[in-house]
């Protein structure tokens, strides 16, 4: 039987393998998106979603380990001195780019549950000469940071992988300062797709089957104290499934009674 824990362990194992392949230099194809979802076109995921200038700022291993479905640093409008949190930081690509943007007076946290990814990210950040980044081991469903401590939350193709998405949204709201904002890239489904149709288009660990729909994202963020919510599709990765940019501003504290009803822990036919 598939449980929330077994699914999370499958996700962890898959991304540990991806980190190992980059570290071993065996060319797992992460940079062409193959690790995130083998069925998708190579331009849908990975380093090709970053500008040439951004790629020039990165060690090769960080670019190669890119498993995202967008470029959250391009939409988050980071400013010098800000504190940023990257949920599911993987090989560290967005942490490195963000750390350069916020400068020496700013700080970037990268949070990931996979030891192999954390080790890769720490090596990549050191190679890039980054001194204002801290990589934390933990779950995005239980963020190991105090309330009201972060200006901006970014994330790249990770929230779809969570088995407890309501907890993730609540935690994002908790750690953001009042007026704090989020700029997330994620896979999002059109509202018309059923769970089964979604699962037919790709796997959970491949970022497809667990994706929220557009209206689930909007309602979930609204329920935990966000306004100015926008979910914008950028590129279609499968019929009715899109890479998307999700933006919002935290305007009130989350109300425990208003917990969002989003995505069951394990979707039917998810794997
Ligand atoms: C698709 S990769 C994206 C990595 C990175 N954001 C990028 O753009 O290259 C997903 C990452 O999220 C991490 N991850 C997945 N689910 C997580 C969870 N529930 N808590 C913490 N990290 C998680 C994985 O270990 C992996 O490094």
Give a description of the structure.
- Helices cover 31% and strands 23% of the residues.
- By secondary structure, the protein is α/β, with parallel strands linked by helices.
- Strands 1, 2, 3, 4, 5, 6, 7 and 8 form an eight-stranded mixed β-sheet that branches.
- α1 runs parallel beside α6.
- The longest helix has 20 residues.
- The C terminus is likely disordered.
- S-adenosylmethionine binds next to α1 and α5.
List keywords for this structure.
single chain, 271 residues, alpha/beta, eight-stranded mixed beta sheet, globular, disordered C terminus, binds S-adenosylmethionine
What's the structural blueprint in terms of helices and strands?
Elements: H1 4-23, H2 52-56, H3 60-64, H4 72-75, E1 83-87, H5 93-102, E2 107-112, H6 115-127, E3 133-137, E4 150-156, H7 165-175, E5 176-189, H8 195-200, E6 212-213, H9 214-223, E7 226-238, E8 241-250
Parallel strand pairs: 1-2, 1-4, 2-3, 4-5, 5-6
Antiparallel strand pairs: 5-8, 7-8
This protein binds S-adenosylmethionine.
S-adenosylmethionine (SAM) binds at residues 11-12, 15, 36, 66-68, 88-91, 93-94, 112-114, 117, 139-141, 156-158, 161-162.
